Amino acid sequence: PILDQMSEVYHHPNSQYWVIVDQHDNVLGGGGIAPLLGDSTLLEIQKMYFLPVLRGQGFAKKLLQQCFDFAKTQGFYDCYLETTAALKEAVSLYERLGFQHLAQPRGQTGHSQACEIWMLKALEA
C-alpha cells in the first residue's frame, strides 16, 4: 500500500524520500526515511532500491548519509531498518556504516515475516 501512496507518505513531518535519476530523468534508485510505526522516537530507513547499474558506486552510502543528516536535523538520535539476509551487500554496507544488529524488531512495521534482520544506528552528534 505504501508504494502506491509514496508522495503522500513522505509528505508528513519527519519524512523524506530521495531519488537518483540519470540525465534523462529516469529513476535509477531511491530511499527514504520516516517515523517508525509503533515507536515515534525512531526514524526508519525505508524503501531503499537501486537498479544494478548503480550498485557498487557509492550511491547507497551517499543516500544513507542524507538520511542520517536529515534525521539529526529533525532531532532524532537513532535510525532503524529492517532487511533480509538475501541482501548481503546491503547488510554489509549497513554494518560498515555503524548499524548494530538487534535481537528483535522494533516498532510495528509488519515486515517481521519477510525481514529477519533488524538493525539500529546511533547517530553521531
UniProtKB/TrEMBL annotation:
<feature type="domain" description="N-acetyltransferase">
    <location>
        <begin position="1"/>
        <end position="124"/>
    </location>
</feature>
<protein>
    <submittedName>
        <fullName>GNAT family N-acetyltransferase</fullName>
    </submittedName>
</protein>
<dbReference type="InterPro" id="IPR000182">
    <property type="entry name" value="GNAT_dom"/>
</dbReference>
<dbReference type="GO" id="GO:0008080">
    <property type="term" value="F:N-acetyltransferase activity"/>
</dbReference>
<keyword id="KW-0808">Transferase</keyword>
<dbReference type="Pfam" id="PF00583">
    <property type="entry name" value="Acetyltransf_1"/>
</dbReference>
<dbReference type="InterPro" id="IPR016181">
    <property type="entry name" value="Acyl_CoA_acyltransferase"/>
</dbReference>
<dbReference type="InterPro" id="IPR050769">
    <property type="entry name" value="NAT_camello-type"/>
</dbReference>
